[in-house]
């Protein structure tokens, strides 16, 4: 005798009895059903919402809102487990995960999820039909692709794409994709990436299949895993689109394609790389419709925009933009060109590849197979009467030398380098083989750049003070309101939407020119630039966080926080004090390291009087000066252009006209800048110079004073006004 079939949710009968009439209950009992929930709803006895609310009340559970599903929770929940137990991941933390289920008594589901995910499982109630629809919505791409793969048995025919004509393109709209499954598969991947604002598509072969990941706002997200059977067909399809050789699988290849997605064209840059599990493919998406080439939308601070505008106003010289791959260098350069183009100048570019096509600008695509390299194109462009030249990237010595020579001969040259900061650009050019004196003469400015994700304006919330790391609290005063990322459907539950740039801008002045020509190391160049007012990448990012553009977490993800010593020095370092002579304010700077370690002079030795061309002695002049300008606390009068260290070495302040006696000033009109301290004997520059912008030229014109009798090594030290103090 066969037993009557029991419903899989027989536990629900007690709850239904309180909602249905006796007649409705008898109808349900008369016919075997697989699910009491589905049978009661299908017959119209009760609605999903009513039944879910009743179950929630009985088991003291919340009714799930399936419109608020976290993307992080979906990534944490494997599709196989979600489909096996019929659950929807709602939210996830480091210790727990919230899921929606139609069977809150399924202990096997709760234990398996807790073991597999390593988190405590918290359940909420949702109707089974709604859960099934949501599963298809969340994991639809994988299900659709699996269905496509099932039809791929046998021979696959792929048509070649002719991109020689301007009107030829691939339409990747789903309903126009055709019947061939591989084509539909690739078209769907590209179309969904463009719709998601992805900048790159990664097809990465794995042991179990092909992982498809999108880079959205600079962060890679895995969106699906294709079965192992599609490895070769999908790579072959992409190669055909980019006009690559599908028979070559053991060496890298590069190509490009153009597709039409929902009515507008998108350029694709394709790169393949042989890996241990197969060929990896990266597709760079260049969607010009989503890129506004305007300096005002780059997120520049007011001071940064002013400095960049000043660099663009140059009529000759070189401006470099530096940063890692994907930091927005090309977008910044194109935005600069759009501004410069308004001056009515002849602009030529040499790029590999040409990423965006700009009207009114001649753009040259490098083609090494045809012999059109960067140096060859630059030589030809210099014969085309150019005003502004953009070099996509300086890669070798020949390109660098031609670009520098063009900057020295009256052209504006814009280019990029792959370095970490602005000062490293000088070292990079030197390593390539460009002479330091040419770099100092040609270089006008350097811009280092990074991209930070921008907070979603719809869901960002104020951050609590305790969320700021202790080592960073010195950068964010208590009165500054910071924000944190939350997540909403508009930003795909990430809390960020779009990106903005942070910059480090170096404007080359006379001091930096002299340092670059002298071949000073990077750390000294950075110190001089910061003394001149250069803001670092970190400082720029801090300002954006204070404005509410981004979060501290995003700032730490992209940029390296300064060391604790530097952060402490930032809050304690003040400008050197000024002492007033009644004539000019002289910065009091520390002595050079070589001098500071020596014993301080016990007394000042008298300085012999000297006469100027008018016949008055220096003593007479100092007396007259003292009558007008009282001496300071040290009993010194007007500053003099020299001082002696403990070993008797005489340091002279440059006047630029030869009166200081320095060899470079005497022998060349291009001597060191005025106001720098140097050793008169060795003609080596001294490290003890006041910061740029605070140094006053206090050198007295006329013949340089002679060393007093007995000077030299071991002589009694002397120091006059105008010299650095300890």
Biggest β-sheet: count, sense, barrel? Answer: 7 strands, mixed
Tell me the number of strands.
24
- Give the structural class: alpha/beta
Uncertain regions: pLDDT < 50 for 5+ in a row?
152-179, 569-652, 655-726
What global shape is seen?
Answer: elongated
Strand percentage lies at 15-25%
Q: Kindly report how far apart the N and C termini lie.
A: 107 Å
Whole-number mean pLDDT = 75
Helix content: 25-40%
Number of helical segments with 4 or more residues: 25
Radius of gyration: 36 Å
If strands are numbered along the chain, what order do they take across the biggest sheet?
4-8-9-10-5-6-7
Please specify the SSE layout and strand pairing.
Elements: H1 13-17, H2 22-30, H3 36-42, H4 48-59, H5 71-76, H6 79-85, E1 88-92, E2 96-101, H7 107-117, E3 120-125, H8 128-138, H9 140-150, E4 170-171, H10 181-195, E5 198-205, E6 209-216, E7 219-227, H11 231-241, E8 253-261, E9 264-275, E10 278-286, H12 302-312, E11 317-322, H13 329-340, E12 347-351, E13 362-365, H14 374-381, E14 388-391, H15 397-408, E15 412-417, H16 423-432, H17 436-442, E16 443-455, E17 461-462, E18 483-484, E19 496-507, H18 510-518, H19 522-531, H20 537-546, H21 552-558, H22 564-572, E20 578-580, E21 585-587, H23 593-596, H24 618-628, E22 642-644, E23 650-653, H25 663-667, E24 677-679
Parallel strand pairs: 2-3, 4-8, 11-15, 11-16, 12-13, 12-14, 14-15
Antiparallel strand pairs: 1-2, 5-6, 5-10, 6-7, 8-9, 9-10, 16-19, 17-18, 20-21, 22-23, 23-24
